[in-house]
Amino acid sequence: MKKTGSIIICICELLVGILLLINPVGFTTTIIIAVGIVLILTGIGSLISYFRTEPVYAARSQNLAKGLISIVAGLFCAFRSRWFIAVFPLLTMLYGVAILLTGIAKIQWAVDMLRLKMSKWFLAAIGAALSILFAAVILMNPFNSTTFLWTFVAVSLIVEAALDAIALLLSRSRAHSDLY
């Protein structure tokens, strides 16, 4: 089950990378607006829950405040999505940190595969090394333009997803053959 979730994550990374290559600003704007709509709907749900709940329980749940904050955040995302595009370099740094942490987690995966004597452990190690390398490049931000940075992020997502999927599939086939 865990590997199925990992494969789904690889597919999502691949899809996001491709969409970022095709139209980075449009894709990102659409995602931000979609998140805004979800936040607004969640906020409305919290407000409804607050007013439908007994006052004693409603006071503990804080759903009124949660709902209002969610609606305000959702409205900001939906109507000020370009703000996120303007602060893309900061968001990219956060992405770089996330990729670095993912790379460190992939080291664990590679070492586990090695210790379990799986023959293709080096694919996971390559994926970990690439994740850490991509994170380092993103965090150092040597790019002259935001467009090149978008392209680099997209390509790094695609490469990581492909390597992770290959390593997952090979480790799955190896684990399956070990059972029989």
Spell out the key features of this protein.
8 helices, mainly alpha, globular, 2 domains, DUF308_memb, 180 residues
Q: Briefly, what is this?
A:
The chain has 180 residues and is an all-alpha fold.
Descriptive overview:
By secondary structure, the protein is mainly alpha-helical. It has two domains: 1-84, no CATH class; 87-180, no CATH class. Helix content is 90%, strand content 0%. The chain has helices at residues 2-22, 24-52, 55-61, 63-79, 81-86, 88-115, 121-140, 146-179. It is globular, with a radius of gyration of 21 Å.
Number of strands: 0
| Uncertain parts | none
* Overall tally of structural domains: 2
Radius of gyration: 21 Å
Distance between the termini: 19 Å
Determine the number of helices (DSSP H or I, runs of at least 4 residues). Answer: 8
What would the average pLDDT be, to the nearest integer?
85
Q: Main β-sheet: number of strands, strand sense, barrel status?
A: none
Q: What's the helical proportion of residues?
A: over 70%
User: Structural class per helix/strand content?
Assistant: mainly alpha
Strand content: under 5%
The ordered H/E elements are HHHHHHHH
Shape descriptor: globular
